[in-house]
Amino acid sequence: MIFDASKKLIRFYGRRKGRSLSVNNQFALQEGAKYFIKNSHLSLTSKLILEDLVEFKPKKTILEIGFGSGENLLKSAKTNPDILYLGADPFLNTNAKCIKEILNYNIKNIMIWPDDIRKIIEFFPSNIFSEIKILFPDPWPKFKHKNRRLIQDNFLISLYNVLKTNGIITLGTDHFIMKSWILEIFQNNSGFQWTAETAADWRTKPIHYVATKYEQKAINENRDPHWFIFKKI
Ligand SMILES: C[S@@+](CC[C@H](N)C(=O)[O-])C[C@H]1O[C@@H](n2cnc3c(N)ncnc32)[C@H](O)[C@@H]1O
Fold it and tell me: Fewer CB atoms inside 10 Å of the end CB: C or N, the chain?
């Protein structure tokens, strides 16, 4: 059992595996293990993680939580080889898909945490990330499921700790409940400032972001993605 910083049990309600993990995908996960952050909860310490990260001597480090099939993670890493991208997602099928691309393109500046971000977030050194991206988090729209949403007061405190001052958190969502939830939770935390000045700011996708599967799905189904950027002050 793993607990968060406030000693609350971490429960993950999404899927970790599809109906089957093909032999091909199992092979990709084995091959890709070298891209994984040391994958044992027992050996996780800030020191070990820092050793993993500094090996890259990155100009900066960016965390993408729930990278899905990795469209955005892969494009960002290919475009900015001197930035280290850390992707976290517990869904093994899409992890395998992303790793195949990493291997195909011989990408060197991605590390993967193939699990729930909340299990590792407390172990990152403070002020390590320049940016954190959370694109189309599961909305869990029913009120009775609101505790399953990733964005929660406690989780935001953890994100605050690992983000550099003036660093940003970028969130994208097309779900009307998630839009107001994000604003509500961020408003509860005086450490962050919403950077939007006009409606165009939350209607315009940040430059260089590629459409992820869930963004494309929203557009195909005539839902408007909105983009929220919060700065750590
Ligand atoms: C709706 S999908 C969006 C995927 C991708 N970002 C996109 O836009 O296509 C949400 C993703 O978040 C991942 N996720 C959910 N809870 C998570 C957690 N606690 N830590 C890391 N990833 C998580 C899920 O496995 C899933 O891949």
Answer: N
